[in-house]
Amino acid sequence: MNISIDRDLCDNHGQCIAVSEGLFDTDDNGVTVLTRTAGPADRPLATLAAHACPALAITVSDE
Hints:
Layout: E1 2-5, H1 15-19, E2 24-26, E3 32-34, H2 43-52, E4 58-61
Antiparallel strand pairs: 1-4, 2-3
Pfam families: Fer4_15
InterPro entries: Fe-S_cluster_ET
Cofactor: [3Fe-4S] cluster
């Protein structure tokens, strides 16, 4: 599974952080980042975060 954040689209609304139980956070510069390497068990949270993103900046795909 691959999770990507399109930096050109992300406006740091924080919806992914609110729904992902720690999979996403902001770094010291206020940029949204993944907090860990995501495994198969993270797919539901990643998908939820992608759907919650108002900018559609998160993509979850098979790899």
